[in-house]
Amino acid sequence: MTFIEFKKTLLDADISLPKFSRLIKVSEKNLQAYKKKGEVPNTIAVIVKSFAEFHRLGVDYRELIGSLDLQAKTKKGVGFAKKSSGKSHDDKDKHKEKKKVTEENLSA
Prior knowledge:
The protein is an all-alpha fold and 108 residues long.
């Protein structure tokens, strides 16, 4: 399904893109990214087409989907977290101790 067909089908389902994204717990930014690609994934196409058909038949799909208690996926480990050098605190302490001993030997 092209992104244009997706947007038209949203209209048939009587739902806006922001409301659709909140309902299925997918970020609006992710859905908008499909505009660049020109197509939406099959799962999104099936969902929006089903919503349009439910709406045509008078079925309140919003209530049905809301009852699923879907959870939004969140990325873990992103942002500005301090990067680990891969060394444990023990390794760092050993390195400091070794450096200290070396400095003492040089000054003696």
